[in-house]
Amino acid sequence: xxxxAEADGEPAGMVRLDRHSSPSRHDEVSIxxxxxxxxxxxxAAMLSLCARLRPHAILEAEISPANxxxxxxxxxxxxxxxxxxxxRRVPCRERVPA
Length: 98
Hints:
Blueprint: E1 2-7, E2 10-20, E3 26-33, H1 42-53, E4 59-62, H2 68-76, E5 80-81, E6 86-89
């Protein structure tokens, strides 16, 4: 799934979700924001949209340790550090009353 974000009618960035089934079932998140729109909330809005569109999916992202802006963005979006460069968001499971 590929989505293009717009700001004031102009392209501002993109987010892509790629489904993987091996070795673990998850959606890989790839995100890019044009420099003029960085740190404006565009990336956070795109990550929020991914979580709403795929509420039961495990989302993963590969982030370079040097990319401090992305690290902070994904942490604020509920992703946790699971390996050197992998961050993961596991959806909350609501309890179903008995």
